[in-house]
Amino acid sequence: MRLGVYGALGASQGIAVFCYSISVSIGGILASRYLHQSMLYNVLRSPMSFFERTPSGNLVNRFSKETDTIDSIIPSIIKMFMGSMFNVVGSCVVILIATPLVAIIIPPLGILYFFVQRFYVASSRQLKRLESVSRSPVYTHFNETLLGASVIRAFGEQERFIRESDGRVDHNQKAYYPSIVANRWLAVRLELVGNCTVMSLISLCCRWLAVRLEFVGNCTVMSLISLL
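== ABC transmembrane type-1 domain-containing protein ==
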């Protein structure tokens, strides 16, 4: 009987994971195709004044890096989010069944998670924007260098263009590096909150053990496995 229940749960999980993976993949393809077609349609029908005002690096950035983000990065992030969300919900259900007293600490931890997430998202959004803005001049300079390579060699200005390209790349990395630091900051805070959750669960289980000695042992192990 128990093996049948576990088998049914495993099969249901496999079907659910397959369905949402297919849905996210197809949705990412459709979204990327729609975005690319819309951008291409608008660019090809833009007046000449648009190309005079807009650097070519901005257009290259939109059609390369940001389109690649929609193609490959966003679908994988959505899959990770869905998997993490179901893991969190399942862990909370197991923990609440094993140790109902944990419900006391869930609201404070939720508030702490909310403030960490709010602070990180606001900072990360601005850092991503700065990194995207500083990437466009790199593409612009590279494109202009390719178009005028013969003139640059004729006047012997290779070193100057190399230094300028290195400077623009360094400026872009100055905006990219803080985003990595922000990700590490978030990871440390989330790990801290997770450790606080484990410590609170162990403390409450020790208190609950005195009341429900015969039942709490197995459930405590299940709760700790769910958290870890």
